[in-house]
Specification:
Blueprint: H1 2-14, H2 19-34, H3 40-49, H4 56-69, H5 72-84, E1 87-88, H6 90-103, H7 109-128, H8 130-141, H9 151-160, H10 166-172, H11 174-194, E2 199-200, H12 206-232, H13 237-255, H14 264-294, H15 297-308, H16 312-329, H17 332-349, H18 354-368, H19 376-385, H20 389-412, H21 415-423
Antiparallel strand pairs: 1-2
Helix pairs in contact: 1-2, 2-14, 3-14, 4-13, 4-14, 5-6, 5-12, 6-7, 6-8, 6-11, 7-8, 7-19, 8-19, 8-20, 9-17, 9-18, 10-21, 11-20, 12-13, 14-17, 15-17, 16-17, 16-18, 17-18, 18-20
Length: 426
Amino acid sequence: MSAAVMLAFLGAGLIGMPLAFALGAGAVVGLWMSGIDHTMLPSRMMNAVNAFPLMSIPFFVLAGELMMKAGIMERLIDLANAAVGRVRGGLGHVTILAGMGLSTVSGAAVADASALGSTLLKPLSRYYGVGFASAIVAAAANLGPIIPPSGAMIVYAFMAGPSVSVGAMFMSGVVPGIILVCAMMAMVSFYARRRNFPPTGEAFAWARVGHELRRSLVILMMPVVVIGGIVGGAFTATEGSAIAVVYALAIGFFVTRKLALRDLPDLVLRAAITSAVVGAMIAFASAVTFVLTIDMLPLKLARLLKDTTDDPIVFMLLVALALFVVGCFLESNAAYIMLVPLLHPIALQYGIDPLHFGFLFVFNLVIGMLTPPVGVVLFVLCGLARISLAEISRHIWPFVAMMYGLLFVCMFVPQLVLWLPRQLGY
């Protein structure tokens, strides 16, 4: 029965059906083969999305939309320019630092790719060529789901259950995220010297850094207030997401003054559409998970893996390989929703720290957003830069290889992931 469910899902997806409804097709096939009354499907779906923690997703999405419209990119880019100064490959460094700053308010790679690309792609292309420029923007945008707040980590924590909290997942990405920023900047410097890219930017001056820091301070305080409140226990992730919306509204109306009342309906609609797609996937996937559980697929899969290896490191390597393949062909939200309920309990049986496994799972699928043929971030940049998928893929592989290198370092050195959450009491 499990095989029929997966074939129905893959078949529906291959003919172009949206992934949420392809999951629904798999669920219907599974219910029909199991003989269970189909009338349980609506109630099962409703129960899956009728959860208070899930309200944080539309609020964080809306906060990101509001901050984009409020014009934060200009201030973040000015601050990054001041911090970098005039160096070879400087505009690439500015893009990565701007991506890091943007990730602290958006939490979504696609939104970051659109914002960074529309602002920085043309000047980057002038100095570095459109292919390498697009790869830099794509890599910088991929910081969004790693540095908190992260929509991907919220979905993972919800699907994994009480063994993983949203706050702990957020904190697990801070140290690897900083390391990733440094590694990306080192890679840009390497290629800048190798290809003799010209220096860009103005000479470094502390006065200019201080000026831009003061201009950007109210924006940089948003993650401090929201993430700090969640980690400190002042409010839940859902309450923090609502506070983020209020904070974003205040910045847009009273600080940058680029947000108007007439902008709100369109921004709310876009946030609702994005949230509805995730909600539909969760609803349909819950029915699929129910059918697979009836067929005892998690137990069968656990036995198969246990028969293959008793080593937790080998298990994580097998999962990494599987997620690499999945990331090439499946949208990341669908992968979280389908695979976390199957693989998370098995990881616990191997004695793997659930937070460590959760971060590796998310990071693996985040990298998948840069791998063709279904790398969604690549498609965004192809549209903005008007280049082919083959062209951007040729330049993105060094960044992908570097991210996988960090993934394996985090796998073998779990303290990189766990140190900060443990210091904060998680």
